Amino acid sequence: MVKRNTDKETTLNNKKDNKVSSNFLSSEFEKPVVKSIAELSGGSRFFNRESSWLDFNTRVLEEAANLKIPLLERLRFLSISGTNLDEFYSVRVAGWRQLAKTDPATLSEDGLTPFEQLRVVDDKARKIVACQDGVWNSLVSELKEQNIQILIADDLKKTDEEFLENYFFSDVFPVITPLAIDPAHPFPFIPNGGLSLGLELKRQKDGIILRVLLPIPSQIKRFILLPSEFGEYRYLSLDQLLLMKIKNLFPGYAILASCTFAVLRDSDIEVEEESDDLVREFEVALKRRRTGEVVRLKLSESPPKELRSLIVGSLDVLESEIIEVKDLVGLLSLKELLKIPRKDLIWNLFLPRIPERVLDHNGDMFEAIKQKDMLLHHPYETFDMVVKFLSQAAEDKNVIAIKQTLYRTSNQSSIIDALCTAAENGKSVTAFIELRARFDEAANIRQARKLERSGAHVVYGFMNYKTHAKISVVVRREKEKLMTYTHFGTGNYHPITARFYTDLSLFTCDVSLGQDATKVFNYIGGYAQPESLTSIAISPINLKENLINMIGLETKNALGGHPAAIWAKLNSISDSEVIDALYEASSAGVMISLVVRGICGIKPGIKGLSENIRVKSIVGRFLEHSRIICFGNGNLIPSKDSKVYISSADWMSRNLNWRVETLVEICNPTVKEQVVSQIMAANMADTASSWVLSSDGKYKRDTELHGSLLFSCHRFFMENPSLSGRGSAGASDVPELAHSID
Predict the structure, then answer these.
(1) How confident is the model at residue 448 (pLDDT cuts 50, 70, 90)?
(2) Which contiguous run of DSSP H or E holds residue 628?
């Protein structure tokens, strides 16, 4: 069972005399130590990637049991943990499963064969599912205390039954298709993610047994809201309603047994490198995804033996690929309950700020950027400014060209609309769209066709590399000269996810940055590999090399007796060469502090290898997504003299070797101070939402390592408008923060 966190949270307020203390960068907190460095030879010097990801999903699930979080938000965390686990099986487990068949000798970075890897994953995943069951039961009880009830058939009133009778025939019966299973009716195809009822029925007149499948259409709500008194919310699941109405679907039959089951299929997409039409090839591949091999079967607990055998045998799954769920199969549907209008059970409303500098210039993005580089911190500052940058360019008669990368977009995208408007207004618009954005391929194809119809040039980039860089360039004629305005981001051009992902946006009209961005576009569109880049590095060309070289410079500083430090904030770290470079730096005395939300292959706190490396993960109200790297450059605490970068890339082999990514140096002193003394310092100081990683692979809540004063970086940024706006706030706005965490 997931341990509940009942500590009362306190957060820093805005007064300047408050101090934030944190031991994250010190050597004071407990560091479990591996017996000897010799035991860490080969792959044992890394944490397993898949196991580390499952640990992250466990941290997400822990938030569903965290009593400090509003009740419906905890329900959201439970739903996310279920969706995450399903996608993990459909992609990562599917990949290892395929390797186990085709190349069983392949080893992971930490030295596991595919079969060993699958065993590790299966053990952890089963524990997660058991915890999900327990958390769901607890949440059902707590929801009931708040007059939100999840009912079963026995709980219904006569008036409920009358309502459900009408609802069934008007909204369910026309869509439902029962499917008998016998020699004349073979087992039907169940699509990826498909949810079904398996039924064992008995014909009452002669006792003949009939086995039936009842697919549950995703187009119908899983939870049916029943008429209730004011302030009451009573729900019955569609599964329960269908079981109640079997007599209407199968007249003359009675239910002997039933079970709910869901199917997960291999969802990875492969395309032929020699394809003549990449878009058509992806459209075909998307259809194949629906019919991929089953990699996991989830069944409600203790189904009847014969019915279970029929389902398992027909889907051709192994026992190791089956997991029985005690209560709710399909946690994704819980998101329906999040629409309950109970403001007291969700996060307090937060409205992102409009940067003051943009307001000072009456909303003119180009004038605001021209004043000096501008860094926005989303979601605390509205992503609408990125949209405004493009929509203003679309209508500006002086703008002659727009170039834009697009990795993930929303179905109704204001970014796409702005680009279409620009093209229709006669501007040269080039959109670099990545078709291989997993689970967004179909949306990207639709948007690509929309852009082409508007007259934009659409480029799909490389066959072998995903284009994951976040760059937008606007070329504007000003006083007979061409000015290049550039946006570099750490997150996707996705206005919806930008509401709850923390990311950075750098707007600049710096000439060198504009030229570098243009060279990247030329590389993606015309394979013209840039000969020189002034202020950025890109993968797969030189990003990894530059990164390792900069880690090496800090190592050299430490060996020379100079202060040396590295701060980094990332989603994932698993590349073996980068990790080894960090180990070497730590051994030399470089103080390394990492905020890694998800996968982390580094084993911190090991004497003689990584005793100077600290790692923590922040999981809270917002999803930490920004990638920031600071090198001390002669300073123990990163400062104005440090080397500071923002990036689209995590430190994973796929990002550094097989994607087009950017690493952008921050040179403007004001922006650099904003990144170092505000954003990074607050993340390092967070204790309210942080989990500290030990050398044995266990994560411990930072609340267990500190007293009652808990600092929340999310709350801090929401409550401190002075940290953004004109981008001129300094370290003093984070009360003694930078100096209290060394």
Answers:
(1) confident
(2) strand 627-631
- From CA 310, how far away is CA 295, in angstroms rounded? 17
Closest by CA position to 387, among listed 273, 308, 499: 499
* pLDDT reported for residue 106: 86
Q: DSSP readout, 229-256?
A: -TT-EEEEEHHHHHHHTHHHHSTTEEEE
The mean of the pLDDT values for the chain is 86
CA torsion sign for 419, 423, 429, 433 is positive
DSSP string, 159-179: HHHHHHHHHIIIIITTT---E
Q: Is the peptide bond before 563 cis (omega within 30 degrees of 0)?
A: no
Please tell me whether residue 741 adopts helix, strand or coil conformation: coil
Reading the block at residue 319, the tokens are: 């026992």
- Please state the φ and ψ torsions of residue 606, each to the nearest 5 degrees: -100, 120
Q: Among the options 361, 377, 378, 468, which is catalytic?
A: 468
pLDDT tens for 215-238 read 988 889 999 999 998 889 999 999
Domain 356-530: assigned CATH number: 3.30.870.10
**Burial group, residue 473, by CB count within 10 angstroms (0-12, 13-18, 19+):** buried
Backbone angles phi, psi at 553, to 5 degrees: -65, -40
Q: Which fold has domain 176-327?
A: polyphosphate kinase like (3.30.1840)
Give the pLDDT score at 286: 47
Non-local (6+) Cβ contacts of 659 within 8 A are 465, 466, 467, 468, 539, 540, 649
Q: What ranges make up the beta strands (E) of 452-605?
A: 457-459, 466-467, 471-478, 481-489, 501-508, 536-539, 565-570, 591-596
> Integer distance in angstroms from the first to the last C-alpha of the chain?
36
- Which tens digits make up the pLDDT trace of 512-543? 999 999 999 999 988 888 888 999 999 999 99
- The count of C-alpha atoms lying within 13 angstroms of the C-alpha of 705, restricted to the half-sphere facing its C-beta, is 26
Residue 468 bears catalytic tag: yes
Residues 681-717 have pLDDT tens digits of 999 999 999 999 999 999 998 776 665 678 999 999 9
Q: What is the arithmetic mean of pLDDT over 266-274?
A: 56
Q: Does the domain made of 49-146 have the CATH classification 2.40.30.10? A: no
Q: Where are the alpha helices (DSSP H) in 89-113?
A: 94-102
Q: Which residue has the higher pLDDT, 739 or 58?
A: 58
Q: Do domains 176-327 and 356-530 have the same CATH topology?
A: no
**What amino acid occupies position 463?**
M
Burial zone of 371 (CB within 10 Å; 0-12 exposed, 13-18 middle, 19+ buried)? middle
Q: How confident is the model at residue 360 (pLDDT cuts 50, 70, 90)?
A: very high
Query: DSSP labels for 406-442?
Result: ESS--SS-HHHHHHHHHHHTT-EEEEEE-TTSTT-HH
Mean pLDDT in residue range 369-388: 96
Q: Cis check for the bond before 540: say yes or no (omega within 30 of 0).
A: yes
* Rg (the chain; Cα; Å): 27
Q: Which residue has the tokens 């995208």?
A: 413
What is residue 640's predicted lDDT score, i.e. its pLDDT? 76
Q: What is the CATH number of domain 538-740?
A: 3.30.870.10
pLDDT tens, position by position, 610-659: 999 999 999 999 999 999 999 999 888 877 789 999 999 999 999 999 99
Query: How far apart, in whole angstroms, are the C-alpha atoms of residue 233 and residue 382?
Result: 34
What residue spans define the domains of the chain? 49-146, 176-327, 356-530, 538-740
pLDDT exceeds cutoff 60 at 138: yes
Name the H helices within 438-508: 441-454
- Arithmetic mean of pLDDT, 465-493: 95
Report the DSSP beta bridge partners of residue 483: 476
Helix (H, G, I), strand (E, B) or coil at 395: helix
